[in-house]
Amino acid sequence: MTPFLLIPKIYPILLATIDVLIAAMPGCVALHHQQVRKTSDDGRMLIRTVSKPLGLNEELRQIDDDEEYDNEWVVEITGELQEAKDIARAVGYKYIAPVRGFDNIYIFSKENHRGKRKADRKSTLALCRHKHVRWAEQQRLHKRFKRDHTDATAAAAVYHTNNINNYNYNNNDNDNIFFDDPFWPQQWNLKNSTTVNGQPISMHVMKAWELGYTGKGVVVTILDDGIQHNHTDIASNYDPQASYDLNDDDPDPMPKFNELNRHGTRCAGEVAMAPNNSFCGVGIAIEAEALSYNIDHIDIFSASWGPMDDGKTVEGPGRLARKAIQTGIQQGRSGKGVIYVWASGNGGMQDDDCGCDGYMDSIYTLSVSSVSEDGTSPWYAEKCAATLTSTFSNGHHEKQMITTTDIGNKCTGTFAGTSASAPMAAAIIALGLDANPSLTWRDVQHIAVWTSNPVPLLNINEGWNRNARGLLVNSRFGFGTKTQLLSVRRRDKSPAGFQHWPFMSVHTWGENPRGIWQLDIEDQSMAKKTMKGIVSNITLILYGTKEEPKHYKK
């Protein structure tokens, strides 16, 4: 068996998108142009982000006055630093700084600004009219939500407390590997002992360890609300030279110690908890370096947050975010491409569809959903055609949750939701890159598709189909033939429709695209007799390979 196939199997694995890069920063920052300003009382992350570029009058008219805008503009010019300063002064702006990671893109603020949180079309238009300005856009605030769906009361009924001394250990597993970490017996998701209807269901993590793959030399970045980098189970794998807090513009990503800021530390522990130190549990990529933000050194980005999963929000990454992702794909890992992993969302109870989350609808990212210990799709999981794979997480409240590190140098066994699934997938990919560092970002996606084992999940989950290549696919787990680009969202009552919105499907993976493509649109609303919709433009974009990959013929 070649190293190419040694990556542990992740159940129907998925493909996602991302708004990207930066790690271990209190208040997650999506690369340079997105920045979390604060965490609200209800745990929401408020992120300042660049919206679509505005340079034309018709684009300015589309600005939503209900959005909350900032007194900062991002501007791309034809010159360099001095030219940017001259333009700012000439148009009545204050030059702030360059946007890191991009050439000739800068941040301006408006002098004598009216101070209101509304869009300032006049000021934006004045910038756009300057002969050396390519485009300009006023920044606006977006809400981003962490995807660790859990009920503290229900979790306490199962685990009683976060104190490791009160855990009920199960030492009956016939493991070939043993660690002295007190939470190791609770880490059911990493072991080979889980079965469904007599069928083993495993991510083969321990098999990879037995083969000697532990994530050595692989850098995994957690994009989140900060990391307690001096945590006993994280410190040995933390790289202080490669982490940063972009909120406060300093190199220390240590979050404030409260429950609202524990999310990033929990995600990081899944990847890199140190083994055999008699503390907490064991990370999957136990020798991987974690928490970096430098694209020249990062191999994998993991993000477990996104727009609100309320069944009515439609949001995605802005222009610079998309550009940043593409740069990571083209230039990262010496041209092999950075791997972007994103949690698909927890809006299942709200009839949400992850196809309305722009972080999912990108060919460059790997979107991860969840599967519970009994092999079923969890109640919170969303379905969409962009889902490429799934890893373990919690199911119903009486089911097992995920063990990891917690803020305050603590341990927890109650991490949940797709928030827990994304870093788990990132860590498993790190094992694959340890086995074969030459894998490209596209190779990793192919491996996810071709090594996934849906057999244990077939009889207990509806919605499985086989595409023309013979691959089994499910909109909840990953991989069908008739692709449902958007499921019913009963809470979505917006009259705005979808404006230039990309719906992505991985369900036709490996198929021959020649032939007639048919798009069926069905109105399933109760008001369809009184409300009419209009389809003004549809574009089909197909991505594939020029030559058929060799593994297609096996």
Q: Give a quick account of the main beta sheet: strands, pairing sense, barrel closure.
A: 7 strands, antiparallel
- Element order, helices and strands? EEHEHEEHEHEEHEHEEEHEEEEEHHEE
CATH topology of the largest domain: Rossmann fold
Average of pLDDT: 76
Domain P/Homo B: 405-548
Keywords: Calcium, Cleavage on pair of basic residues, Disulfide bond, Glycoprotein, Hydrolase, Protease, Serine protease, Signal, Zymogen
Organism: Litomosoides sigmodontis
InterPro entries: Galactose-bd-like_sf, Kexin/furin, P_dom, Peptidase_S8/S53_dom, Peptidase_S8/S53_dom_sf, Peptidase_S8_Asp-AS, Peptidase_S8_His-AS, Peptidase_S8_Ser-AS
What does this structure look like?
It contains nine helices and 19 strands. It is an alpha/beta fold. The strands form five sheets. Strands 1, 2, 3, 4, 5, 6 and 12 form a seven-stranded antiparallel beta sheet that branches. A six-stranded parallel beta sheet has the order 10-9-11-13-14-15, with helices on both faces. It has a two-stranded antiparallel sheet with strand order 7-8. Strand 7 and strand 8 form a beta hairpin. Helix 6 runs parallel beside helix 8.
